[in-house]
Every structure is written in C-alpha cells, then in structure tokens.
Amino acid sequence: MNLIDLREFEFERDKIILFNENEFIFGDTKCEEGICKRYFYKYNMKNKHIYKINEEGIETSEYASYNSCILNDYIYTDSYKVQNSHVETLIYRISLIDGKIDKLYSISRDAGVIILSEEYALLIGCDYGIDEEHSDVQKDIKGEYDYAILCDLKYKREYGVKDKRVILGIWDYFIPYTVDRVRCIVFEEAYMEDWELEDEFEEGSKKEDFYRNGYRESINIISLEKFVESIKNGYEMIPFSQIHKTELTAWTRYFGMDDGNIYYRTKDFINKIEYIYSIDKRTLEKKLLKSVNMHNSQTTDIWHDITNRKIYEKKIINDSIKQIKEIYDGDFIFEYSELKEEFNDLVGEYVLTSFWTEDDNGDNYKYFTKIRNIKSGMIDIFEGICIVIKDNIVLFKG
C-alpha cells in the first residue's frame, strides 16, 4: 500500500484522470474573485512534486460536474456556465506539453458531455422546463424532451441522434475504448438502478407499466466509425452488436474492463442468481465466468466494486457488528463495531472506512478516513477524503 498525502495543498477531492507508476493527473476547482476556475495538475510519484498544467483556469459554475479524459498529449474536458439566465456547455482541450487551452465547442444548452475521440463528443440532456404553459409533464415522463447530439469537434457540426436507446438509456456507462487501434464504444442500456428494476418485478409490474422501456436492459458494442456513420445517416436504430439483453425478469449491467476483456453482470430475479460474463474485445465472444447465489441480496446491502470486479455484502449483526463479506471470489470477510463507519475499499491487507462528525448545531462538519491493517491491527485516522487506485491511496482535503 502506497499512501500519497495531498491535504497540505488544499485541493478538494476530484477525479484522477490518469494514473501510472510514474505520475497521476487530477483536476481541482478554485474560486478566484468570485469566479470558479478549473485547473489540472500532475503529481510526480518519484520526486513527489506537483506541477500545474494550465496556468489559465477554465471558467465553470461552482458545483458543475464534468468529464475528462486524456487522448495523446491532451486533456479533453467540458465546462458548464450560467450567466444572466444564459446557459452554456463548452468543450476544451488542454495541452500536456505547454498547458495551452483550446476551446473546441460550445452550445447554449445544459448538457452532459461524453468525449468519444479527438474528433467527436456526445451530448445528452433534456429540454424540459418547469413551465406549465410550454411543458407537458406526461411528455417529460416519457422522455419526449430528452435529446442526444453527436458533435463533430473538427468541423463544428451537430447531428441529432434518433435512436431512443441512446437518448434515454445512457444511465451510467457509455464508454469509448481502443483495441488494435480501432476506437469502439461499450454501451450499458439501462433506465433505473438495478435494485429499482428488481423491486418492480417483485411488486408484479408488467411491461406496459413502464415508461421509457424501463423493463429492458442490455450490453452493446460498436465501432466509433460505425456509430458516427449511423447517426450522420439518420438511423433510428444504430446497429450495435447486442451482447446480452434482459427484459423485466433480470437486469444486465456493465462490470468493468481490462486490456483484453469487457465484463458484465446479470441477475435472474426468479432464481436469485447473479452471473458474471466476460466479452473478448477482439472477437466479441462472451464467456460465463461465475455464478453467485444472491438469495440474501434483498435483506443486505450489496456493493459492486466495478474497478476491482468485487461484490461486497454488507450487513449488521445483532445491532452491534458491521460485517463486510466479499461474495464474488469469497476471499474476504471483516467485522468491526463502529456502525457509523462506511466501508470504502480493500487495498491488500488494509481496510478503508470513513466517517464524519459535526457539532450539536450541525456545523463544523469534518470528514475522516480510517485505514486498518488487518494483520497487525494498527489503525491510522486522517481528516480528509481518499481516492484509491490499485494499491495507492491518495488523500485529499475533506
């Protein structure tokens, strides 16, 4: 376990967008004279030095979420601004060499951004407004105000997406990746949380009871070239390779990827078995890896660790002990008595939990990370929040 403590630099916890054995890159938002600006930093693992990548900050709203990725020698990121009721979503490119910032695109909409490649981005959002005169609640429930737009960053063109699965079904994962120099996309089609769909099944809901095809879930793969071509040609059904599909009696969810494979999980609501599959990135051949008995899943708290492909069962025993049990590989079980502490992660022989405190008035909020060595019993407590990547724990200011 390698502990990297960045709390002294006053960074708020943010996304780490690149991590290797030599360095990692992350973002941070600072408020300067009432204007929020985002900066990116590089941390050198050997000399423990932090380098600011862009000296000029990217203006953004204070609590705006964003996505970032690194392609070749550039960080691609988006920003969201509101000024005098005018909304704008922007896409930028920052050079890792000299920190130069290029504004690639802007649109007068509040949209989520998925960077697909150096040339393309997908925007998703909803035009529904809280205005009884111009908005219809029933249309909103059915997703008629939702949209998806393919943006050509090079030629500054927009193409409307007609496939309702993309417009409505991007719940968590629409992930670009490269295999043998070919850019591809894996798409998890889902419309609600997995437990919500299972609850609907247990309550006896029928297909006709769902809006937005919420009873249906699937895992799909396509090359970026074919995806772009289909949208430009106005296809209402993009020709994804549908790897797995379930309807009402099961869910289908993305479960991570590595260099050679993509993983997904399904659960049969009738027999209460969860199945873990792999998909070969090159051949798209799928293989059943394991089945896990989930008969207790509705009476315990289940956490799927996508990064490490672990499944944790969390439950309280006799109102006094919190038990954490890994049920995919079955290689870990841990119990502790501090019921208010949340289990965060397992790094080798170290268990990470977190808790918070406040005064009697609900003020002076503080967040803490606790690291336990399972073998020695030693405990370290740090005020702050952590991000775990492989066997590295990065501490940020809370």
Automatic annotation (TrEMBL):
It comes from the Bacteria. This is Uncharacterized protein. It comes from Tissierella simiarum.
